[in-house]
Amino acid sequence: QNTILYINIVFKQWYQRRVRGSYFDHLASWLREKGNPDILYLTYEDMVEDLEREIWRIIEFLNLELSQHKVTEVVKKSGFGAMADNPLTNYSWRDGAVKQASSRFINKGKVGAWRELLSPEQSQEIERTLRQQIETPFGIKIRDVL
To answer: What pTM did the predictor assign?
Structure first.
């Protein structure tokens, strides 16, 4: 019950741009740079779908040379389970709310899991804003399922 109340409060503040600015404006600022050869675009959905493929994209973009063995090691250490268990990436070392098991910094690692947390109305609001501010102006489709 408290979690749902917290999510509703944070959603309202985030959506009204009271928390760290607008996600949609931030995303649009990067999408305006599409075609810039100095920027590599990665999506969480693509990384969940095939992490090794995306690691190879990063290696190629940075013009690095890594062995398959090293790439396999990077993939293993970059997977959701490894990061969720690592204090350096899960923020369990911080004081306060994130130290509590019920408020983990790293959530479920699932694409589209936000739909499980938000109400149908909140989800529809996000989808509407994505269409208006991101998908239509930039001619892209934001993927939230695999």
So the answer is: 0.73
Neighbours of 2 (CB within 10 A): 7
Q: Which residues contact 82 (CB under 8 A, 6 or more apart)?
A: 76
What are the distances in angstroms from CA 8 to CA 20, 40, 112, 132?
Answer: 17, 34, 18, 23
Using alpha carbons, list the distances in angstroms from residue 26 to 8, 9, 21: 22, 21, 8
Tokens 């399922």 correspond to what residue? Answer: 145
Please give the structure tokens belonging to residue 119: 């109400």
Averaged pLDDT, groups of 10, the chain, 146 residues long: 63 64 85 93 91 97 96 93 80 58 64 81 88 91 79
